[in-house]
Give the backbone structure.
Amino acid sequence: MRRRTFAATLAATFVAEPPLLRADTTTARVGILSPFTPADSEEWHRSLRGALARLGWIEGGNLALDIRYARGDTERLPELAAELLKLKVDLLVTEVTEATDAAHKATQTIPIVMIAVGDPVAYGLVTSLARPGGNITGFSQNILESVGKRLQLLKQVVPDLVEVAILWDSHDTNSAINRREVEVAAGPLGLRLKSLETTNAANLDTVLQARLAQDVRALYVTPAPLFVTHLGRIAPFAAQNRLASVFHLPEFVRQGGLLAYGPDRNDLFRRAAGYVDRILKGAKPADLPIEQPTKFSLSINAAAARAMQIAIPRLLLAQADEVIE
């Protein structure tokens, strides 16, 4: 599968420090705090485990991994973070903003490697990207340009598109920020937005059905753990109701959605293994700069497009990293 590089990694020089844990002699205990389900994050965790193994950290040998899943209920994250701390983990890996925030509130001493967080400076998680300070470092996915890019993709495949329904979680900070960015991007494209606001899985179907009454032809799904966990409901709904839809993860397209564009999350998890390795060997999170995505992926469901009688431009198909026929 092809991957294209869109942004440069922040350069940094790392100072060698005396190792606290050695990959060949000491068992390290690493906790993973996830707002998702095991199925949602299985592929990402496989990427992390594989990269750690290549660095000499073998699960069941010199590495113990303890994982806690909130299964889409982000309100459980504080209690799950506390559970991991009771296990006396040497390091925490946190997924996206909500889990990182919960871990940050739970400890200011245990090292944290965050993955796919929004804007860690704006959220008060770190002092700066170059020198985070404190006990947190890792990888941001705060590329707001990709928000507008997803809207552009909808317009590209449906040129006469006028109105787009935007699904967002008003209890999720990153989802709310994305909604505002979509509003900014919509004007120059001549698009009007119809808000589909939700806060929980219980009313998700009702909110989606409200779209039918609005008679719009496209659905923009903002990034939020709630929507990742329930892709199996959202993507088929879009397909069955002939909605041109877009999300930020390729899993959305594999379940029936039309388009997906965003940072390559598997790549972020692979790169995070390097920071886990450095910290377990003595590096300080405060000295490791926050890095940005360097790989983005575009996924297209050509079969869904044909069912909706949407002609995907050949150039766009040629640019895609994944095309589902």
In short: The radius of gyration is 20 Å. The chain has two domains: 4-142+264-294, 145-262+298-324.
